Fold:
Amino acid sequence: MAEQSNAAYRIEKDSMGSRQIPAAAYYGIQTLRATENFPISGIKPLPTYIDACVLIKKAAAIANGELDCIPKDICQAIVEAADEVLGGKFRDQFVVDIYQAGAGTSHHMNINEVLANRALEILGDRKGNYQRVSPNDHVNYGQSTNDVIPTAIRIGGLLALERTLFPALSDAIAALDNKAEEFQDIVKSGRTHMQDAVPVRLGENFRAWAQILTEHSIRIETASGDLTLLGLGGSAAGTGLNTHPQYRYKVAEILRRLIEQPLQPAPHMMAAMQSMAPFVYVSSALRNLAQDCVKISHDLRLMDSGPKTGLKEIQLPPVQPGSSIMPGKYNPVMAEMTSMVCFQVMGYDNAIALAAQAGQLELNVMMPLIAYNLIHSIEILGNALAALTKQCLEGITANSQRCRDYAEGSLALVTALNTHIGYLNAAAVAKESLETGKSLRQIVLEKGLMNEEELAKVLDLSKMSAMPTDNLGSNS
Structure:
């Protein structure tokens, strides 16, 4: 299938004709056509997605070799080539734009051609001699774009979660819990509707955020369980055409060992190939996390606002100059970056939802978009949280005096008087305090509504801001 032309090029043929391929290239004629057809974004496949595809090819070669479907020496060469790519080699050879042929055929053939040509070299042959090692007949034996790509999205998603997002969430939760302990005795004014509210502990703010992230981690882990059911072995339409009867079980078992995830064949291969629901499920969980991360990052910015004209209850670590014109200005850039990443994740989720419903009959042709958006969402969200933790959360300090001053000066303290002097009397006290500048304590005592000892107990900030003890599981 390949002829020598000159030192710079080789000639490859496909069903559409012949083309010159750069002699040094490991990709082949179908990849070349794709690069010409899709000069869209300049964005190349994510490394994690390449890993996922190559892991599938490695597992398929091992399985097909054990099942005597392709010669052992070719299987071994494909596996060796796959291991080289997984080790970081030949990454510049995966060149197809992420916006490409439906279902991902272009990227899939790019993978097949690179592995075939490297396998040829390992066997002592020349690149392009596809009669010896074929991208289609050997690297792709028993496979189709239609079952490989949805499997690659699953594998890529699981890899990205384990490598990036779950560790980042764990570190962020630990950092927030540490700050919760550090700030537990600092009382500050609560705020609802951006107005003064009853006092709270600064530490509980951070503990609440840690709990929120913990619950999101559980949700995402639950959703990711759907990624472990593989349609690999369904071939073109879910019927398993041109595959060994044991192939789908064996390849799932091999992949399970390779990535240490509880992978298994889907109960219905056609369903696993048609429905994008698992990816929507994970993406929606990511969006849910992103929405709360935006809220947390905005809270951090508000609490750090100032330094002279804002709240300035906490100090976020200054990591870079904040202005090209105003000297000495430092901005909450890590929190700002986090919000931007989260907005992108929300946008990706919307695109994934639209792509997921756009399938027809036996195939969803929008899988390249889903693959990039889902894996990229996981990775940028994980990277953002990791950076936020290291550059911001771990170094936050508290302005305890500012917090105390706000708490003591808040009109919302009057809420604690409700059960002692009644709501209407408390409202009148708050109104008078706002109009005259007198403290709540002074007005209550002047009006004889409570004595000084009673008032001191009721307006004890530490007791007012203490969280209730959970005794729901106690028999006492």
In short: Confidence is low (pLDDT under 50) at residues 471-476. Residues 145-182 form the longest helix (38 residues). The chain has three domains: 21-141, 147-233+269-400, 410-463.
